[in-house]
Write a structure and sequence with these properties.
The complex is a heterodimer of chains A (339) and B (792). By secondary structure, chain A is of the alpha+beta class. Chain A is built from 13 helices and ten strands. Chain A folds into two domains: 100 residues; 229 residues, Bira Bifunctional Protein, Domain 2 (BirA Bifunctional Protein, domain 2, 2-Layer Sandwich). In chain A, helix 2 runs antiparallel to helix 4. In chain B, a hairpin with a 4-residue loop joins strand 3 and strand 4. In chain B, the strands form ten sheets. A seven-stranded mixed beta sheet of chain B has the order 27-30-31-35-34-33-32, with helices on both faces. In chain B, strands 2, 3, 4, 5, 6 and 9 form a six-stranded antiparallel beta sheet that branches. Chain B is of the alpha+beta class and 792 residues long. Classes of the chains: A alpha+beta (339), B alpha+beta (792). Chains A and B meet through helix 5, strand 1, strand 2, helix 7 and strand 3 of A and helix 2, helix 7, helix 10, helix 12 and helix 13 of B. The structure holds zinc ion. The site of zinc ion (ZN) has 8 residues of chain A, from loops.
C-alpha cells in the first residue's frame, strides 16, 4: 500500500509538472484528490490493513495528499503567471492611433484676447463698465469735448439713427456715463462694439470692438498713464516689450498720446508685421480733458485722470498674425477651432 | 514737405531720418519719406540741334544733342520733341532711379551715345505735368548746356509726408513745420522776408463782406500787367514734390504761398469782375456757378460765395468760378487772401461733394492773422515771376479782429499734472521756442499764445506743449501712487455671463461673432410675418445699404448665414453660439434709447445632432445657472419646425425658443440638412440665475428601485406622465428617470410605450417593500385615471 501511494505520488508529480493549462491542473486535482480520485480509491483499501499499520499508512497518505496539493497550487500559480504574461503580450495596441475625441468648444479669438486684457486690468484694480451701443449723440461727441462743428467729427463716419441718437463710434461714451454715475476714485475698463460707416475690407469693418479705460482720482499724473499702460504692454505682449509714447490729438484728452510697442514678431528689428519700423501702434491715450471732467460733474481743479482706448480686433489680428479682418466675422469653424 | 525747402527757414544739418524721428516724437508724425534724385548721376541738360527720321525704323528718331562739351548722336522713340528743345540727357555711364545704367550702343544699326529722359525716368510723377512735358521726353526751360540735371532741377531732395492732426492746421505749411523743427532741434526759425514794391497807381478794387459771420477777414491786392507763362522750374519742382500740378506762373504763385504759409489764396482775372467790386455773401437759393473744374453747381443760402455786383464768381474757400478764371490772356489780377468759418466750408464742400486743397485747409479753421502776409508774399512773387506791377494799397476788411489769448498757468500744477519735476526756467524755454511769450508773475506764468496756435486755450494745452517738447518718454513711469486703492472685480452679472459662456463651450459649441446690421430680407428668409415686432427695428439713416439698414432684433438669421458658410465649405459638424445684443425699440422713431438685450444664439447641424442634443445644451445651461422649474411648450414660431420646437417658460416669463429650423427657412438658406437653433434671453437667465448652492446631505438609507412601463396615447407628453408619477408619489420619490419610449411592433397604432425608473427613498428610515408597493400601485392607478395609461 505504501508502494501504491508512492507510485501515485510519482505519477501525479509527473503529470502535474507537465501540465500547461489551468484546466489541466483542475482535471488532475479531480483525478488524484477528488472524491472519486485515485487517492480515495487507494485509501478504500485501508480497511484490509492491520490496525497498527493504519496510522502509519494514514500519515503517508496525508503526506502524499499535501505534497500533491502543494504541487498543484505551485504549478497552478506558475501557469496563471505565465498565462497573465501571455495575455499582456497579446494585448499590445498601437499607441499612435488617435484618442477618442471629446468635443469642446473654442472661444472666439477676440474673446480670448479680451479675456486676457480684462485679467490684467482687473489685477490693477479696474472694474468693468458697460454702456449702450445705440447712444445719444451727446455722450458720443458733445460730452467728449467734440461739439457739432469740431473737425474731429469729420474723421469719424458716423451712423445716425435720429438727429440725436447714433451708433456709438467709440467706447468713450461709457467714460462719461461712468463719471456721471460714480464719484472718484474711478478705475474702469469698458469693452464693446463700436460702429463706423466703412465698407468691410481686409482692415476695415463697419462693426468692430474697442476697449476703453478710465482712471480718475486726486493726483493722477501723466506718469501714471505711462506706468499703467507700460505694465499692460509687458503683461500682454511679453516682459521684454518696449513702449514709446508719441504726442497725438484726441478732443477729449489733453495731453494726448499714442503708444507704440516694440514689434512682438521681430523683437524690434523690423519685419512685415511692423512695416519694417520695429514698432507697432497699439493704443491712443491721454489725460482726461478738463472740459470732459467738468461736463460729467467732476471738479477738474480737484481731480485729474487718464483714459485710453484700443482696438480689440486689431490686437487680435496682430497677436495671431491674422492678415484679413473679415476672417474674424466670417466664422468658418476651421478658423475658430484653431484658437 | 521738401527738406531742401525747409532749410530756407531753419538751419538744420540732420538727415531726413533723424528729422522725421525727432518730429514724430515731438508731435508731428512723419508717415513716409520719399527721396528724389538720389540715384541720378551723369544726367545733364542738352539742346536738340537736329532731328531726323531713323533710316531703318519708322517709330524712332535720330537727334544730335548739344550737351555743352560735345555734340552727341542719340536715338529716341519719343515723338514730343523738336529742334531747339532743352532736354535731360543721360550720358554714357549715367545712372537713373531703380538701378538703371545707361551705356552707349546701337539701335537698329545707328549709334546712340546716351538717352533722352522722360520725367518718370527721373523719378517724378508725370501725371502732374502739363501735356507737352508728358508722354515722352521731359522738356525743360533753357538751362546752361551741360548743367547737371540734379542742380538744374534741384532734384536731390527728401520729401516728408506728415499725419497732421486736426488741431494743428498751422502745421499744414512749410513755416509751421519749420517752427516745429526749430523747437524740436533747438534751432533758430527764420520767416521769409516779404517786401512789396508798390507802384504809384492806386488800387481800383473794392471789397464788401456782407456775411461777416462766415467770412472773418478779406485781404486783397491788385497786380497789373502780368504776363501769363510757366513759373520758374524750381517753383514747379517744389509744387510737384508736394503733389500739386504746376499750371501757370500766377496760379503757381498762389499755390506756392499756400504751401509756404498755409494760407490758401485765389487769383481772379480782375477785368472780369463786374465793377471791380468783390462782395462776400451767402449764395441765393438755386444760384448757379460753374466752378473751375467745369461743373455747374447749384447753390443754396447756407453756402458762402465770392461775388461781383452781377453774379457769383467763386465758391468761397472751396473753388473759384470759371467766369473769372486766369487764362493766357489775363493781364490784371486780384489776389484774394481771406479767412472763412471752417465749419461752413466743410458743410459746403460736403454738400456739393467738392473738396479742394483750399477747402481741406479752411475747414480746419485757419489763423486770420496770416492773411496779410500771405497776400503780400504772393504780390512780391508775382511782381518777380509774372512781370506784374503791384498797385498801391492793400484792401483789408477785418470787421472783428481776434483777441490775443493770454493764459495764466502754474508751473507747480503742471509738474503735478504731468508727474514731472521740471524747473520753471525749462518750461519757459520750451514755450519761448514755440513762440509763446512768457512773463513770470509770482509763482505763475502769464503766457501769450501766438496767433497761429488757436488750439491752445487752457493750462492743459500748455502742459502738453511742455510735455511733448520735454519728451513724453522722458516722463518717469509711476503707478498711481497718490490714488486710492480700488477693487478690481467682475459684477455678479458679469460673472454669470462668463459662466454661461463656459457652459456652452463645455457643451462643445464654438463661439462666433457676427455683425449687428440686418435688412428686411434677413427677416423674410426666416419667415418673420410682416406684423411681427421683430420688424419694428431701429433704422439707420445713412446705412451702407438697404440690407444693412436695421439694427438686429434677432440673431437667428446670422446663425443660419454662418451655418450656410460652413456647410458650403464642407464643415461636417457644426455647433456654434454667439452672445450678442439685440435692439428692441419701445417706439419708432426713437425718442429714448432702445432696449439692448444680451442674447444667446445657438446653431447646430451634423450627424449626432437632433432636437434633444440641442435641448441638452439648454438644460445644461439652466442647470449650471441654477434655474429650476423651466417648462417647455410647443413654440408657434414660423422660423421653426412646428412639431420640433419649444418655447422655454419660467413661470410667466419666456426665456427663449429653440428647435429644428423650419424646412422652408432652410430652403431659403439653401441648406439641405436639418439645422437646429435657438435664441435665449441672457439678461433674463442672469436675472433668474441662482448659483448660491448649499450642500445636501448624502442619503443614509437605501433607495428602492421600481420600473414602470405604460401604454399611452401617442400625443401625450412624457412630461405629463412624469408629472403624475411625481404628484402621486410625493415626498417618497427620490428620483424619476425616463429610460424608454417605444412605438412600433407589439404596440397598438397611435399608442406608445413609456418606461420610467422610480427610486423610492426616505431620508429618515429604510422603506419596506409593503410601503413601496402601496405607493407604486397608487401611481399605476393614477396614471390610468388621469392619462388612460395602461400597465404593460
Ligand atoms: Zn516687426
Amino acid at each position: 500500500m505504501e508502494e501504491l501511494l508512492r507510485k501515485l505520488y510519482e505519477d501525479a508529480q509527473k503529470e502535474i509538472l507537465s501540465a500547461d493549462s489551468l484546466q489541466q491542473i483542475e482535471n488532475l486535482r479531480v483525478k488524484y484528490l477528488g472524491k472519486k480520485g485515485e487517492l480515495t480509491q487507494i485509501l478504500r483499501g485501508m480497511g484490509s490493513l492491520k490496525p497498527e499499520e493504519r496510522p502509519v499508512i494514514g500519515q503517508i497518505a496525508n503526506e502524499v495528499r499535501e505534497k500533491i496539493e502543494g504541487l498543484l497550487t505551485e504549478t497552478k500559480n506558475k501557469i496563471a503567471q505565465l498565462e497573465k504574461e501571455k495575455r499582456i503580450k497579446s494585448e499590445y495596441i498601437d499607441i499612435t492611433m488617435p484618442g477618442k475625441p471629446y468635443e469642446y468648444g473654442h472661444k472666439h479669438p477676440m474673446t480670448q484676447v479680451l479675456d486676457e486684457i480684462k485679467k490684467i486690468f482687473l489685477g490693477l484694480g479696474f472694474s468693468i463698465a458697460e454702456g449702450p451701443e445705440i447712444e445719444f449723440t451727446y455722450y458720443n461727441f458733445e460730452a467728449l469735448n467734440t461739439p457739432e462743428d469740431h473737425p474731429a467729427r469729420d474723421l469719424q463716419d458716423t451712423f445716425y439713427v435720429t438727429s440725436d441718437i447714433l451708433l456709438r463710434t467709440q467706447t468713450s461714451p461709457v467714460q462719461v456715463r461712468t463719471m456721471e454715475k460714480n464719484k472718484p476714485p474711478i478705475r474702469v475698463i469698458s469693452p464693446g462694439r463700436v460702429y463706423r460707416s466703412d465698407e468691410i475690407d481686409a482692415t476695415h469693418s463697419p462693426v468692430f470692438h474697442q476697449m476703453e479705460g478710465l482712471v480718475v482720482d486726486e493726483g493722477i499724473t501723466m506718469g501714471d498713464l505711462k506706468g499703467v499702460l507700460n505694465i499692460f504692454a509687458k503683461k500682454f505682449f511679453g516682459e521684454d516689450t518696449q513702449t514709446k509714447f508719441r504726442p497725438h490729438y484726441f478732443p477729449f484728452t489733453e495731453p494726448s498720446a499714442e503708444m507704440d510697442v516694440s514689434c512682438f514678431a521681430c523683437g524690434g528689428k523690423g519685419c512685415r508685421v511692423c512695416g519694417y519700423t520695429g514698432w507697432i501702434e497699439i493704443l491712443g491715450a491721454g489725460m482726461v480733458h478738463p472740459n470732459v471732467l467738468r461736463m460729467s460733474g467732476i471738479d477738474p481743479e480737484k481731480y485729474s485722470g487718464f483714459a485710453f482706448g484700443l482696438g480689440i480686433d486689431r490686437i487680435t489680428m496682430l497677436k495671431y498674425g491674422i492678415e484679413d479682418l473679415r476672417l474674424l466675422f466670417e466664422n468658418d469653424l476651421r478658423f475658430i477651432q484653431q484658437f | 514737405m521738401s527738406l531742401s525747402w525747409l532749410k530756407e527757414f531753419v538751419d538744420i544739418d540732420e538727415d531726413a531720418k533723424a528729422i522725421a524721428e525727432g518730429l514724430t516724437m515731438s508731435g508731428s508724425k512723419v508717415e513716409t519719406i520719399t527721396s528724389y534724385g538720389k540715384e541720378i548721376s551723369n544726367v545733364v541738360v542738352g539742346k536738340i540741334i537736329s532731328l531726323e527720321k531713323h533710316p531703318n525704323a519708322d517709330k524712332l528718331l535720330v537727334g544730335i544733342v548739344d550737351v555743352g562739351t560735345e555734340k552727341l548722336q542719340i536715338v529716341t522713340g519719343a515723338q514730343n520733341i523738336k529742334v531747339g528743345d532743352y532736354i535731360p540727357v543721360a550720358l554714357h555711364g549715367a545712372t537713373l532711379p531703380g538701378g538703371v545704367k545707361i551705356k552707349r550702343g546701337k539701335l537698329r544699326g545707328i549709334e546712340s551715345n546716351g538717352m533722352m529722359c522722360s520725367a518718370e525716368e527721373l523719378g517724378l510723377d508725370e501725371s502732374l505735368l502739363p501735356e507737352y512735358q508728358r508722354n515722352g521726353i521731359f522738356i525743360l526751360p533753357p538751362f546752361p548746356l551741360g548743367m547737371d540735371i540734379n542742380e538744374a532741377l534741384q532734384l536731390k531732395d527728401d520729401v516728408l509726408e506728415f499725419e497732421i492732426t486736426p488741431n494743428r492746421p498751422d502745421c499744414l505749411s512749410m513755416v509751421g513745420i519749420a517752427r516745429e523743427v526749430a523747437a524740436t532741434f533747438k534751432k533758430k526759425f527764420k520767416m521769409p522776408v516779404v517786401e512789396v514794391n508798390e507802384s504809384e497807381e492806386q488800387n481800383p478794387a473794392k471789397v464788401t463782406i456782407e456775411a461777416t459771420d462766415l467770412c472773418f477777414r478779406y485781404v486783397a491786392r491788385v497786380v497789373k500787367n502780368v504776363k501769363i507763362g510757366p513759373s520758374p522750374m524750381w517753383m514747379q519742382m517744389r509744387l510737384l514734390k508736394a503733389g500739386i500740378r504746376p499750371i501757370n506762373n500766377v496760379v503757381d504763385v498762389t499755390n506756392y504761398v499756400m504751401l509756404e504759409l498755409g494760407q490758401p489764396l485765389h487769383a481772379f482775372d480782375l477785368d472780369k469782375v463786374e465793377n471791380k467790386h468783390i462782395i462776400v455773401r451767402r449764395a441765393r437759393e438755386g444760384e448757379k456757378l460753374v466752378t473751375l473744374d467745369g461743373k455747374e453747381r447749384i447753390l443754396d443760402s447756407s453756402m458762402l460765395v465770392i461775388a461781383d455786383e452781377k453774379e457769383a464768381i467763386g465758391l468761397a474757400g472751396v473753388m473759384g468760378g470759371e467766369n473769372t478764371e486766369i487764362t493766357d490772356t489775363t493781364v490784371n489780377i486780384l489776389i484774394e487772401s481771406a479767412n472763412f468759418k471752417g465749419s461752413n466750408i466743410r458743410h459746403t464742400s460736403k454738400k456739393l461733394g467738392l473738396r479742394s486743397e483750399a477747402s481741406s485747409r479752411f475747414e480746419k479753421g485757419l489763423d486770420p492773422e496770416i492773411t496779410v502776409l500771405a497776400c503780400e508774399r504772393a504780390a512780391q512773387l508775382m511782381e518777380k515771376y509774372c512781370g506784374g506791377t503791384v498797385l498801391k494799397g492793400l484792401v483789408d476788411e477785418y470787421p472783428k479782429p481776434i483777441e490775443k489769448t493770454v493764459l495764466t498757468v502754474n508751473p507747480h500744477r503742471i509738474n503735478r499734472f504731468l508727474g514731472t519735476d521740471l524747473p520753471t526756467s525749462q518750461m519757459i524755454e520750451i514755450l519761448e521756442s514755440l513762440e509763446f511769450k512768457v512773463v513770470q508773475k509770482g509763482d505763475d506764468l502769464e503766457v501769450t499764445v501766438p496767433h497761429f496756435r488757436r488750439d491752445v486755450t487752457i493750462e492743459a494745452d500748455i502742459a502738453e506743449e511742455i510735455a511733448r517738447l520735454f519728451g513724453y518718454n522722458n516722463i518717469e513711469d509711476s503707478l498711481m501712487k497718490n490714488a486710492q486703492t480700488t477693487l478690481g472685480a467682475l459684477t455678479k452679472e458679469q460673472r454669470l455671463e462668463e459662466k454661461a459662456r463656459e457652459v456652452l463651450l463645455a457643451c462643445g459649441l464654438n463661439e462666433i461673432v457676427t455683425m449687428s446690421f440686418m435688412g428686411h430680407k434677413d427677416l423674410d428668409k426666416i419667415n418673420v410675418p410682416l406684423d411681427s415686432p421683430l420688424r419694428k427695428a431701429v433704422k439707420i439713416i445713412n446705412p451702407l445699404g438697404e440690407d444693412q439698414s436695421l439694427m438686429r432684433t434677432t440673431l437667428l438669421p446670422f446663425i443660419l448665414n454662418v451655418a450656410y458658410t460652413n456647410y458650403s465649405r464642407k464643415v461636417q459638424d457644426f455647433k456654434v453660439f454667439e452672445i450678442s445684443k439685440i435692439f428692441m425699440p419701445k417706439e419708432l422713431p426713437l425718442k429714448e434709447l432702445p432696449q439692448e438685450i444680451k442674447t444667446i444664439a445657438i446653431g447646430m447641424y451634423g450627424k449626432d445632432v437632433d432636437f434633444y442634443s440641442l435641448k441638452g445644451v439648454i438644460e445644461a445651461l439652466f442647470e449650471v445657472m441654477g434655474i429650476k422649474g423651466v417648462e417647455y411648450v410647443r413654440a408657434e414660431d414660423p422660423s421653426y419646425h412646428p412639431g420640433r420646437s419649444a418655447k422655454i417658460l419660467l413661470g410667466d416669463e419666456t426665456l427663449g425658443i429653440f428647435g429644428e429650423i423650419h424646412p422652408d427657412v432652410l430652403e431659403n438658406y439653401d441648406i439641405p440638412v436639418r439645422v437646429y437653433g435657438g435664441e435665449i434671453n441672457l439678461d433674463k437667465v442672469i436675472q433668474y440665475a441662482n448659483v448660491e448652492n448649499r450642500y445636501m446631505p448624502l442619503p443614509k438609507y437605501p433607495a428602492v428601485e421600481r420600473d414602470i412601463a405604460v401604454l399611452v396615447d401617442g400625443d401625450i407628453f412624457v412630461k405629463a406622465v412624469e408629472k403624475v408619477i411625481l404628484e402621486t408619489g410625493g415626498k417618497l420619490i427620490d428620483k424619476v428617470e425616463l429610460f424608454d419610449v417605444y412605438k412600433g411592433p407589439n404596440i397598438p397604432e397611435g399608442k406608445k410605450s413609456v418606461a420610467f425608473s422610480i427610486w423610492y427613498r426616505s431620508y429618515g428610515r429604510t422603506l419596506t417593500d409593503e410601503e413601496v408597493n402601496v405607493i407604486h400601485n397608487n401611481i399605476v392607478e393614477a396614471l390610468d385615471k388621469k392619462l388612460g395609461a395602461k400597465l404593460r
